[in-house]
């Protein structure tokens, strides 16, 4: 499941806890993610599922904007070039 792969990969990359949608009340720093769309793509007469979902991530770090930007660049640098590759063990 892609959600578990996202969680696993983000935790490995950043060392922060990762949760779907919201941080728990007792956690002050971490990463949240949510699915923002499941678009069906239409290419001519054929319907395809090349893009299955888009996810939004939010990094929450208290009083350390420099660290937040560093983690953002780290994640973007790792995932930007993925084309028919893997996030954790999940094919994307």
Word description of this protein:
With 92 residues, this protein is of the alpha+beta class. The chain has one domain. Helix content is 30%, strand content 30%. It is built from two helices and seven strands, in the order H-E-E-E-E-E-H-E-E. A three-stranded mixed β-sheet has the order 1-2-5. It has a two-stranded antiparallel sheet with strand order 3-4. The chain has a two-stranded antiparallel ribbon with strand order 6-7.
Summarize the model shown.
With 92 residues, this protein is of the alpha+beta class. The protein starts with a helix and ends with a strand.
Structural descriptors:
alpha+beta; three-stranded mixed beta sheet; 30% helix; globular; 30% strand; 2 helices
Chain-wise SSE layout:
Layout: H1 2-14, E1 18-20, E2 30-37, E3 41-43, E4 46-48, E5 54-60, H2 65-79, E6 86-87, E7 90-91
Parallel strand pairs: 1-2
Antiparallel strand pairs: 2-5, 3-4, 6-7
